[in-house]
Amino acid sequence: MWKVISVLTVLAAGPVAAQQVADTVAPEAAGAGVFEDMGPEYAGAMAAKVQGKPVVARNWMVAAANPHAVKAGADALAAGGTAADALVAIQVMLGLVEPQSSGLGGGAFLVWYDAATGEVTTLDGRETAPLAATPRRFQDADGAPLKFFDAVVGGRSVGVPGTPALMEAVHGRWGKLPFADLTAPAIAMAEEGFPVSPRLAGLIEGDRERLGRFADTAAYFMPGGEPLAAGDLLKNPAYAETLRMLNGGAAAFYTGDNAQAIVEAVNGAMEGAGMLSPVDLSIYQVKERAAVCAPYRGHEVCGMGPPSSGAVAVGQILGLLEGYDLSAGPQDAQVRRLMGDAARLAFADRGRYLADSDYVPVPVKGLLDEAYLAQRAALLSGDVALSEVIPGEPEFDHALHWADDISLELPSTSHISIVDGAGNVASMTTTIENGFGSRIMVNGYLLNNELTDFSFSSHSEGVPIANRVEPGKRPRSSMAPTIVLKDGKPVLAVGSPGGSRIIGYVAEAIVGVIDWGLDVQQAASIPHAVNRFGAYDLEEGTAAVDLTGALGEMGYEVGSRELTSGLHLIAIGDDLQGGADPRREGIAYGQ
Ligand code: GLY
């Protein structure tokens, strides 16, 4: 029954799938009042999301997690800036208005399509472990892994931030506008104040105890001891000062007073776990890496390779599905069986093989090899859940003997998609890891807890784990900023927050657009069904839970839960169409 089908057959399935995603995910209440004074154009963009329609434009488009950030990027594009300029303007605004998800204290991965050369490349602004870090960083005195939040909160989890250096690299390479013009809106808003969004207020309320452990963090998010409420005016003059400092170049972030403040805050919040030193900051480097691309139904799906597992895992899932008919849409249990077991196979390989390839050999080509994927895809030919899923043995010219990683990644992070007037495309996922990161605040920004993306165990039964902590290494990520090309031209930019569920969200959205013929707003709204190598998670309160019985009968352990993706997509064709995830506060906006 499951066999190779043509792309045309698949696309013909569109209306069926569109019917299946209609009215499924209730949109975030578009900021519940706090974004109302942004003018009629932005009101229109917010209304489009509530109505489930894509935003359509001819020249350029931005989609990101907060309307103020979208406006900062849009203003840069309207002023003749490039996608690189818009990216900087958006990132520095997100660091102010969505500080729990990303910012100067974190890291990011950028996938960039260059309209002038027709090439796709990636920049790695991932955080690095201190040179004093050891594989036992997240273990107790007996070698047992720490409890997750004992590791997250405090200095032990903080990696050297990459985002300031990444912004400088992006701007230096592809930007046109002066850097100071791009930070100016965030500086003004930090000084004049911005209304706290409902989402930020809710997250502060839910994290009071952890935020309260650090005096500067508590004073900012809980002035007078009370959590900020939605609509409260929040000022951040320290952040404005830090941005002014960045206008003079990122070196000021990585050396001198700012670096010293980071080092003191981090080391003051941990005991004997491999201290951070000023040298760790001063040697930080952004790395350009070749994009990892995988074919899917006549498209090239290009994204971020190691240290992210994003492009390999998304590419594997799609490669495993390529020979099967998904046209029955997201509410079909057999389609979900195929997608769920493809994800389980990809996660099995990810757990064993994916890590920072500057430290351990990673068989990227072998994992995406057509013959290897065909052999793994044959495992999907039954009609019930695979009873056992183990890593495969991809071709590689090194001996690979790794144990499986069990690191936990919880949802956080933010995704930005941009297409500029010249046709450049930026797809960037940016993070401080957990919501509010390590909870340590320095000079107006939060420091990440990215190092908890490493495996807490260094070995399993004597066999080393590829993603173990090592000095200077970058922790494995799931972030999957993606650009999809057809005939060498970009047709879709997509990405999402969501910890290791990012991989499932992005693969599902790409299937939504390519297989199910969904527009980008519909693709952002598909009721999620995500499998990461364990239970099948169905999105509570949506039609996805209707699959519970059928998937259970196939042998899956099934549960329902909130699945708060933050997909931001732009489809590029005769026009530009933007979609923003209805589960969060973001919008798409273009002209
Ligand atoms: N910390 C989220 C990720 O890198 O996948």
Biggest β-sheet description: 7 strands, antiparallel
Output the strand order for the largest sheet. Answer: 1-22-21-17-16-9-8
The separation of the N and C termini measures: 45 Å
CATH superfamily of the domain at 8-147 and 407-590: Gamma-glutamyltranspeptidase, small (S) subunit
Helix proportion: 25-40%
Structure characterization notes:
The chain has a domain at 8-147 and 407-590: Gamma-glutamyltranspeptidase, small (S) subunit (Glutamine Phosphoribosylpyrophosphate, subunit 1, domain 1, 4-Layer Sandwich), CATH 3.60.20.40. Helices cover 35% and strands 16% of the residues. The chain has 22 helices and 23 strands. The chain has a 7-stranded antiparallel sheet with strand order 1-22-21-17-16-9-8. Helix 4 runs antiparallel to helix 5, helix 5 (83-97) runs antiparallel to helix 7 and helix 16 packs across helix 20. It is globular, with a radius of gyration of 22 Å. The termini are far apart. 61% of the residues are buried. The model is unreliable at 1-13 (pLDDT under 50). Bound molecules: glycine. Residues 409, 413, 431, 433, 450, 453, 477-479, 499 line the site of glycine (GLY). The site of glycine has 10 residues, from loops.
